[in-house]
Specification:
The chain contains 15 helices and 25 strands. It is an alpha/beta fold. Helix 2 packs across helix 3, helix 8 crosses helix 9 and helix 9 packs antiparallel against helix 10.
Amino acid sequence: MNDNIRDNGDHIAVVDYSSGGRYSFVDVGRSVHRAALHLQQCGVRSGRHVVVTLPLGIDLVAYCHGALLLGAVPSFLDPNQPAEALAQCLATLDPSVWVCRSRQVPENVYGGTLCVPGAVTRDIPVGIADIPGRQWNTTDTVLLLYTSGTTGVPKGVPWTSRELASQIRYYRCEEITSELCLFPHLALVALAMGRRVVLPDLATLAPAHLDIATLYQQLTESGSDYVFASPLVWHRLIEHMSHHGLAPPRLRRVATAGSAIGSRLIETMQRALAPTDVVIPYASTEALMPITLIGADDHIHYSESGTWSGKGTPLGRAAPETQVAIIEPDLDITSFDVAVHSLPPESPGEIIVTGTRVTHTYFHRPEAERESKLTDTCTGEIWHRTGDYGYMDVEGRLWYLCRKKNVIDSHHGPLYPDALEQMWNLVTGFPLSGVVYLEDLDRIFYAFPDEQDPAAIDLETMAILADRLRIPHPTPLQLYGPLPTDPRHNSKIDRAELQTMVTKLVDSEEL
């Protein structure tokens, strides 16, 4: 931050739509120091964790950097998760302070100090002489993020300056000078790169309920060069533009990730946002973007053969400073050697990754580390088990099939629901569907939400594709509402709930 203040002090650093303010790096520096003193008054000390659940805005930037100035670690929790899971996270984290808006924190899960941003009367200089510093090492945690918790209690993932510096090296680009950010951690990284950070006045936790008209307006007005958003957000934004006859915002590059992404969406993004460059990174909370990266043209090209044949979604080649391999999903050994235990090309298994953007630990979760981290006995490298199922093709490209936990053991061999959904979605044009296999009936159901038109179903073509894979022909099933999805991304299918829904429909309607 001090480097940016020194070199680009008068340049606009943050455009905050919630406050209507435009802040130079010097202005941001003053806000950071005010926030640091406020946190100090609330009891924040070096080495402690500070939960931050502020909406996007200048206060979020100021209080995260203010915590870092004091030597504390900003920690991002989802305050809307179930109270029991939230309480367990807080008990392990033991934060000294929670920075939030008033009345945001449930009293029954946190009894500590709340820090609510407000007016600070003292005039704070740009310098840091009145704030004790901390010598940070590359292995020190500088941010703590939590997984979505779809498989249990969310896990805290420490991000060190090692991983963040690698991400900054990868994404720093002279062509990209401004970024509209829908995620807090992306705003902090973009600011560290010296970009102008645009923070929309939006509630961004649930993409399905995002005010898409406001997003379009602020994206267009801001003149941003780059945006990363979930597939659902891009789908909704393009539908909004099409419905209202709106011109595309002038962007240099956009990215999307977060679930298996169909080539139909990528084609639509290319067409609707032209001449914007469209890229698809692959990453996770434990492995910062990008593990792999694929451009729109390649994604569409390889989907035409692979995805149409039920071979999954192309993810591209490993990005610089990362390595990718495939191992047996049930591999359980104490002596791991990636050269020995990697599967050959075209062999499906669990995707593992290593490199400078891959985290090494979980916060106070040694059992999770034992399950998810492998140390190569020959090189000492730590590999992360992603929990994703996929394979490498003969040319070194990574393909995604589904989550490891969702592989279906059928009478016809393993079924990969995400791969089947993407294959049949290319026939129907549906952005989201859900495949369910009922073992007792030996039938596959292709479930889709009530908003989709059943006339798009081409049973003959879908059956031909099934025959090529030697699996049962799909039975289309229109639900009486939307597909059940996760509350965080609104695009990851809740497969247990979908299985229950389909079973009840089949039993009640005698399908």
